[in-house]
Amino acid sequence: xxPSLTRRRFLAGAAIVTLLPLPVEAAPDDLAxxxxxxxxxxxxxxxxxxxxxxxxxxxxxxxxxxxSVESPMxxxxxxxxxxxxxxxxxxxxxxxxxxxxxxxxxxIATHIKLRESQKIVAIAELSDGSFWSAGTEVIVTIAxxxxxxxx
Length: 151
Description:
Strands 1, 3, 5, 6, 8 and 9 form a six-stranded mixed sheet that branches. A three-stranded antiparallel sheet has the order 2-4-7, with no helix packed on it. It has one domain: Immunoglobulin-like (Sandwich). The protein is α+β, with helices and mostly antiparallel strands. The relative contact order is 0.23. The model has no long low-confidence stretch (mean pLDDT 86). The longest helix is centred in the N-terminal third of the chain and has 12 residues, at 7-18. β8 and β9 (131-142) form a beta hairpin. The protein is globular, with a radius of gyration of 17 Å. It has three helices and nine strands, in the order ααβββββββββα.
């Protein structure tokens, strides 16, 4: 590891990377393409995943979301990752949480931005190679990312 790489320098570099311009418009196929990149040729099953997000949100700038997956979280049977996608934001891939058997439970909670009303999909990747999903439509009354819409 480079001794000159301090925490401050790392965070400054990470901030620069996150400020790169994003595409203004999401194409209709972007959600399906992003999901396909994670799945490869694997089958996507419905079930085991609970996506807890309000069906109607007033402000898209901070939308609380929780994803949990039915799993014993043992060495032989656990959730390896939770992926979350959205349909109409500039980037369809919202997050990737890597888990393991020591996580104790397969559950994540965060806040996301939603540009407008759209579909949200959560996918769990299990240790046996299977993929499970849940999805829902969210109606947003005040959109986030409006600065992109003004351009």
